[in-house]
Amino acid sequence: MASRHNRPAPARSAPAKAGPKPVSASALALGQEAAPAAAYVGFKAAPVGDSASKEALARLKQATQGLRDHAQSRLLDQAILAVRRHDYAKAEQLAQKALAQDQGLGVAWHVLAVAREKLGDFAASMHCYEAALKLLPNQDAVAADVGRLAYRMGMPDIAAKLFRLHLAHQPGDVAGLNNLASALRDLNAESEAIEVLKPAIGAHPEQPILWNTLGTVMCSLGDGATALTFFDEAIRLDPAFAKAYHNRAYARLDLGDAEGALADCDQAIRHSVAREDVATIQFARSTILLALGRVAEGWAAYEARTSPDLPDAPRFVLEGRQLAAGEPLAGKRLLVMAEQGLGDEVMFAGLLPDVADALGPDGKLSLVVERRLVPLFARSFPGADVTRHRTVALEGRVYRTAPEIERWDQFDAWTPIASLLQTLRPTADSFPARERFLTPDPDRVAHWRGVLADRPGLKVGVLWKSLKLDGERARLFSPFRLWEPVLRTPGVSFVNIQYGDCDEEIRIAREEFGVDLWTPPGIDLKEDLDDIAALTSALDLTVGFSNATINLAGACGAPIWIVTAAAAWTRLGTDRYPWYPQARAFVTENLQTWAGVMDEVAQALAEKAAR
What we know:
It is a single chain. With 611 residues, the chain is of the alpha/beta class. 48% of the residues lie in helices and 10% in strands. The strands form 3 sheets. A 5-stranded parallel beta sheet has the order 10-9-11-12-13, sandwiched between helices. A 4-stranded mixed beta sheet has the order 1-6-7-2. Strand 9, helix 22 and strand 10 form a beta-alpha-beta unit. Helix 2 packs antiparallel against helix 3. It is globular, with a radius of gyration of 26 Å. The N terminus is likely disordered.
């Protein structure tokens, strides 16, 4: 936690309503570098409560009545009234006036924190909450507020500690119990979350938020069928509970029921009030349309991924004009910004040969990609200018810039790369049967073929997880122990190409499966993306789930087998993987039947090795 401030933060002008604020280049330069992430919309069972609710403001007003200084009390009463009227800028100014008189005034820090949270200035709000937490004798209300903000800023570990502090003062508080369970779920502590929720539901069976959160915990465990039961109960108790419809849609997807998921999304949108919730569900709906094979409709809806109301949507801080949907490309000087996570940047890059053709000889293509991809993309698209982007986390939001672009007048327009999908990939059949669209370094491919020559049999690269595996994403990957029949396949030398910490899985493979998962020497499997592209091109096959590495292999034309869930949107309603024509898809019926699909992979691999 940050240390207590010695002086109030300087006054500044701000819009009266909450929401994203314009960000200066200088502010972004000081922002914290953030890992690129896919536009992934998951469960809606975040901590509940509102720091500016009627009850919360009543508690704040009661605290001001105990102040000895009547002038300070009047200032803070006026600030609380401004919050009630949604005039958060005025509330901020009045709280600062009170702090100018007494910086040890805990309730003033609390009011200032609420005002800045509502203005969207999460970082400054967090500092103010921390100051209030240190100064106020009654910490439970502040702990609940700062816990919710910490959760929103992607710090579930800190949030869990604060929710426990709140519950120490109010042990039976339903919102506090729900919030702690939500944070524990996101920390992969599902068993602890269940232990929090079971007695809470026993004491308060009429509370739909508890059933909803329990459903999300079961989804995290991959038990969509049980989760459906809990979401059904939440909706029975509150037929207008939008978040429960949203979550039930994800449980249906886990079970392969995309049509049912779409119906639930429509119900969620119908009952949602907050713009943030509507934007979140609209984006989720777009991926369900794609999973159903309604591709043109899905891509149009997929633009929701950039909505300013979507909390995790990247904000592109770029100058110049954004390309309009369907606008002709011929002769344009176009800047294409890569977006989302590494795997997405690579997957969407399959559009670039078509973009270059559409621009024609009088046009010019410029690319902004993740720094580790620059050498590979520069080799693959020699006619394009390729520079790196920078992704920054600032005040609880994510921004993407192009720091190496100095002259923006050299471009006629810019576009996020996925916005070109509507025009260039209107159907699943419009994906070209292109051998490859990225070009690995031929010298490094030759090097790796030489290194692999000493490995007997079929050389197969394996990868089994994403770098980010929080409570809900982990369910999208088969548990490692289910890889045993695959890894025991005779006639195969398995090559570990899984980035991140995988020492435990390698140990399990060696000690329990009797299999050597060989890690190639002299390569950083997380950083050396150009060399990974060459390594996978030298392998006979790469097998695994969709992550950055398998997308690199597919983009370079290497043979890949991808294991996916039944309703994975990236298959676009087909039984194949349209992005890579050489890919073979192994599809599980639902997230509780990974064992069956892994057996299918093992059988297919045995047949391939025998041949």
